[in-house]
């Protein structure tokens, strides 16, 4: 019992360290001694972990979490740990891989993970087929589209108590597509698309969620996801710090790109698809992995905001999603909610005025 207590104390000590503690030289020197007494050790960075564990003795088992997000070359670092007899890679090759900024490196598949390579080579894999996060209405489409209906909803998410009504009306059920017909995409200086009418819709929904929260005091976390940085920036700018003080009282809001949301989850997820044009061009919105991540972040409600006509013309995964929403009777037009109509009108007028000014400027330039 004394040995167990001692090891428990040592493990608790390790996990109580802050980053600054770990960087402290004196503490760093004592790590080898402490680690040799630990049953397990967890670290976030592969490179840091391998350095820290140097000289800590042999390890029988290595577990790499989020292995599909780790470049193959990075996986070789922990695999060099002495004494390894078993390695377990946990990940999902159907979601986003490691970030690669160079197009040449991307073309050379530098971002491919060891996890994905082993899958492609036919290495046997075990599917963790029970999902504990999403309401069944949310998991239905991604399960069918990405996982061949192999994922099973846990009893907890199927229980009636898991159904949450954060806003009134059928539009705000567990899963819905909200069609925004008036919005038009425009591009910022960095050539990233944004849609100001969708920004207005998203921010109005967030405002309404906050109003309900202040009345019911029901703890609520909201995530807003968009594939495009320009849209993320515009939503953040419009929301400002309005809800920052509400975190302690139970209301939190997080606005991020799809890439930034991988691994995260919130009670309510609002997805802004942005693209709205006459030719069905959706760019990397059509990326199936990116779509998979976005559609699987919500616990209780997932509301997708987008332009029906553009997405149907795209011939992408989003065409299937819109068609599916219509078949399941969870497709709604944004103007069915008077509050959204009121929010969209000024944004739509402002966009039209902006276009008018652009055309006038072009005409003057041509004439001169």
TrEMBL record:
Pinpoint the DNA2/NAM7 helicase helicase domain residues: 46-103
Q: Which GO terms describe its molecular function?
A: ATP binding; helicase activity; hydrolase activity
Q: Which GO terms describe its cellular component?
A: chromosome
Domain DNA2/NAM7 helicase-like C-terminal residues, every copy: 111-308
Which Gene3D superfamilies has this protein been placed in?
P-loop containing nucleotide triphosphate hydrolases
| Entries under InterPro entries matching the protein | DNA2/NAM7-like, DNA2/NAM7-like_C, DNA2/NAM7_AAA_11, P-loop_NTPase, SF1_C_Upf1
UniProt xrefs under Pfam families: AAA_11 (PF13086), AAA_12 (PF13087)
Does the keyword field hold Hydrolase?
yes
Provide the alphabetized UniProt keywords: ATP-binding, Helicase, Hydrolase, Nucleotide-binding
Fetch the PANTHER family from UniProt: DNA2/NAM7 HELICASE FAMILY, P-LOOP CONTAINING NUCLEOSIDE TRIPHOSPHATE HYDROLASES SUPERFAMILY PROTEIN
Q: What is this protein called?
A: Uncharacterized protein
Annotated source species: Rubroshorea leprosula
- Taxonomic classification: Eukaryota, Viridiplantae, Streptophyta, Embryophyta, Tracheophyta
């Amino acid at each position: 019992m004394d040995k167990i207590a001692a090891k428990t104390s040592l493990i608790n000590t390790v996990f109580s360290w802050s980053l600054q503690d770990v960087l402290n030289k004196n503490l760093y020197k004592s790590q080898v001694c402490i680690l040799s007494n630990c049953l397990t050790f967890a670290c976030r960075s592969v490179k840091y972990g391998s350095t820290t564990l140097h000289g800590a003795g042999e390890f029988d088992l290595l577990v790499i979490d989020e292995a599909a997000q780790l470049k193959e070359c990075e996986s070789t670092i922990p695999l060099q740990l002495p004494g390894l007899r078993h390695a377990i890679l946990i990940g999902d090759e159907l979601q986003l891989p490691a970030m690669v900024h160079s197009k040449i490196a991307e073309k050379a598949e530098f971002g491919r993970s060891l996890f994905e390579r082993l899958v492609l080579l036919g290495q046997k894999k075990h599917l963790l087929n029970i999902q504990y996060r999403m309401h069944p209405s949310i998991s239905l489409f991604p399960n069918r589209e990405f996982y061949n209906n192999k994922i099973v909803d846990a009893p907890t998410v199927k229980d009636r108590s898991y159904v949450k009504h954060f806003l009134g009306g059928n539009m705000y059920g567990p899963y819905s597509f909200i069609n925004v017909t008036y919005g038009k995409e425009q591009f910022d200086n960095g050539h990233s698309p944004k849609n100001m009418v969708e920004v207005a819709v998203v921010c109005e929904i967030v405002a309404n969620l906050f109003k309900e929260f202040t009345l019911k005091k029901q703890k609520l976390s909201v995530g807003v996801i968009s594939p495009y940085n320009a849209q993320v920036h515009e939503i953040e700018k419009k929301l400002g710090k309005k809800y920052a003080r509400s975190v302690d009282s139970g209301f939190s809001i997080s606005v991020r790109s799809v890439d930034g949301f991988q691994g995260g989850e919130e009670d309510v997820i609002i997805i802004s698809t942005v693209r709205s044009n006459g030719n069905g061009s959706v760019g990397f919105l059509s990326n199936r992995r990116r779509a998979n991540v976005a559609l699987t972040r919500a616990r209780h409600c997932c509301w997708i905001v987008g332009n029906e006509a553009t997405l149907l013309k795209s011939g992408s995964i989003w065409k299937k999603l819109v068609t599916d929403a219509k078949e399941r009777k969870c497709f709604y037009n944004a103007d069915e909610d008077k509050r959204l109509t009121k929010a969209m009108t000024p944004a739509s007028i402002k966009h039209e005025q902006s276009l008018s000014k652009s055309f006038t400027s072009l005409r003057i330039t041509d004439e001169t």
